[in-house]
């Protein structure tokens, strides 16, 4: 379970997150919408620990394992997708080759593609970014504008993946400024003026 309590973050005089609280349940699919620059990526960066909040707390349970795709996924540009994923898998020793190959194939990506990631299209790169966020059975998954640059078929493959994650009782938070066709959320939140509002 992820619990965000009264998180605040400013960049110099710009107060981006004014008082953010959020508690997730297992298996929940949550949408955070909001205009460009409202602070969605900043919140995700604080949750995963890339950025430090000025105040407030982030709590996860002992067994929770976070996966994230935030902004442009960073890869080793001159290596293949597969070598990149193996490299990322070394950090937590939870890499599952068969599962990861299946995830790539479900996105119409060839696990044996000899091309370097530097030559991948925006959409291919994004699919790779989504794959690394879920390939190790992460149970809390943060996806920032996940379908950016992905074609219609790819969006449907993404929707299928999220349905699979729901069946596996994973918690997924999607941040996007627009609707992703076919996604049915359990909860919708809107980020506005530094706070999170319930859409319902
Ligand atoms: N490291 C930083 N230094 C200064 N300002 C920053 C920094 N990171 C983000 N900001 C500012 O904080 C605000 C929120 O940025 P953030 O990237 O979180 O927005 P966002 O909601 O994710 O936007 P988008 O939908 O365009 O991705 C913006 O005004 C941005 O310029």
UniProtKB/TrEMBL annotation:
Record keywords: ATP-binding, Nucleotide-binding, Transport
PROSITE patterns the UniProt entry points to: ABC_TRANSPORTER_2
UniProt cross-references to SMART domains, sorted A to Z: AAA
Domain named ABC transporter: residues: 2-200
Matches recorded under Pfam families: ABC_tran
Keyword Transport carried by entry: yes
GO molecular function term, any single one: ATP hydrolysis activity
InterPro entries per the UniProt record, alphabetical: AAA+_ATPase, ABC_transporter-like_ATP-bd, ABC_Transporter_VariousFunc, P-loop_NTPase
PANTHER family listed in its UniProt record: ABC TRANSPORTER ATP-BINDING PROTEIN ALBC-RELATED
Protein name: ATP-binding cassette domain-containing protein
High-level lineage: Bacteria, Bacillati, Bacillota, Bacilli, Lactobacillales
């Amino acid at each position: 379970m992820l619990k965000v309590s009264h998180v605040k973050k400013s960049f110099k005089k710009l107060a981006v997150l004014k008082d953010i609280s959020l508690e997730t349940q297992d298996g929940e699919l949550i949408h955070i919408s909001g205009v460009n620059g409202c602070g969605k990526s900043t919140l995700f960066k604080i949750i995963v620990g890339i950025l430090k909040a000025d105040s407030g707390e982030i709590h996860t349970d002992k067994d929770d394992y976070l996966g994230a795709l935030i902004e442009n996924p960073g890869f080793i540009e001159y290596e293949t997708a597969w070598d990149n994923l193996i490299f990322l898998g070394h950090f937590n020793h939870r890499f599952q080759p068969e599962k990861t190959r299946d995830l790539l194939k479900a996105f119409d990506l060839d696990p044996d593609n000899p091309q370097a990631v530097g030559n991948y299209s925006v959409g291919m790169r994004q699919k790779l970014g989504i794959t690394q966020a879920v390939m190790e059975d992460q149970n809390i998954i943060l996806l920032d504008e996940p379908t950016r640059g992905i074609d219609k078929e790819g969006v449907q493959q993404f929707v299928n993946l999220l349905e699979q994650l729901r069946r596996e009782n994973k918690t997924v938070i999607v941040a996007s400024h627009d609707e992703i066709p076919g996604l049915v959320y359990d909860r919708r939140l809107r980020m506005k003026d530094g706070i999170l509002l319930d859409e319902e």
